[in-house]
From TrEMBL:
Family: Belongs to the HAD-like hydrolase superfamily. CbbY/CbbZ/Gph/YieH family.
Catalytic reaction equation(s): 2-phosphoglycolate + H2O = glycolate + phosphate
Pfam families per record: Hydrolase
Official protein name in the record: phosphoglycolate phosphatase
Organism: Gemmobacter nanjingensis
Entry's EC annotation: 3.1.3.18
Length: 220
């Protein structure tokens, strides 16, 4: 079965504000106040919790990896509490996935967000049922850009990796698609915007309304 696999953060949903809020909760707990800005530091948010912690600590005298390790569980707990406070699906995302499924495609999620958090978020956003499988950062011993999570996502949805594509928004997604030997589509509305075209994906996606036709073009 033809399969379309989606990254989550920055691809299906803009999660940056809630991610930054979780990091700032850590810094407030340490007495530093809010060290990250939800707008200016959105791109760092999509590189994960540890990246946000390192950025914050770099602004108060330097990065201490022991402090990053200590605060990471605190960040995850804070994020779990407010996981859908500001997060919204990108316009047309749910409708595009529904159209793909109606056209006979399998759909899946492959994310570097911990699986439990990803399951919770998709459920709260009301769209978990639109995806045949969900593979997170801790589902397997490896994570993207290793191709194993991607391949597991495709197979978990009942698809054929040789007839699949990855929709993403970062260099990690581009590297994952290359490692898996599949076409990569990068969104122009993610954290890096249209500049992500520098990674030379097989296609760019400017709006979700165009995805069904794009998938048909790439997968035949």
């Amino acid at each position: 079965m033809k399969t379309v696999v989606f990254d989550l953060d920055g691809t299906l949903a803009d999660t940056s504000a809630d991610l930054v809020a979780a990091a700032n909760a850590c810094f407030r707990g340490l007495g530093h106040g809010d060290l990250l800005d939800p707008m200016a530091d959105a791109l760092t948010a999509f590189h994960g919790g540890r990246a946000m912690l390192r950025l914050g600590f770099s602004r108060i005298g330097g990065v201490d990896e022991a402090a990053v390790d200590a605060q990471y569980p605190v960040l995850l707990a804070a994020y779990a509490e407010g996981i859908d406070t500001h997060t919204r699906l990108y316009p047309g995302a749910a409708e595009a996935v529904e159209a793909l499924r109606a056209a006979g495609y399998a759909t899946a999620i492959c994310t570097n967000k911990p699986e439990g958090l990803a399951e919770t978020l998709m459920t709260r956003l009301g769209v978990r049922g639109l995806f045949g499988s969900l593979i997170g950062a801790d589902t397997l011993p490896v994570r993207k850009p290793d191709p194993a999570p991607y391949l597991a996502a495709v197979r978990g949805a009942g698809g054929d990796p040789g007839r699949s594509i990855l929709i993403g928004d970062t260099e990690t997604d581009r590297k994952t698609a290359t490692a898996a030997g599949v076409p990569c589509v990068l969104v122009s509305f993610g954290p890096e915007g249209p500049a992500i075209a520098r990674l030379a994906p097989e296609a760019m996606l400017d709006r979700y309304a165009d995805l069904p036709a794009l998938a048909a073009w790439l997968l035949g």
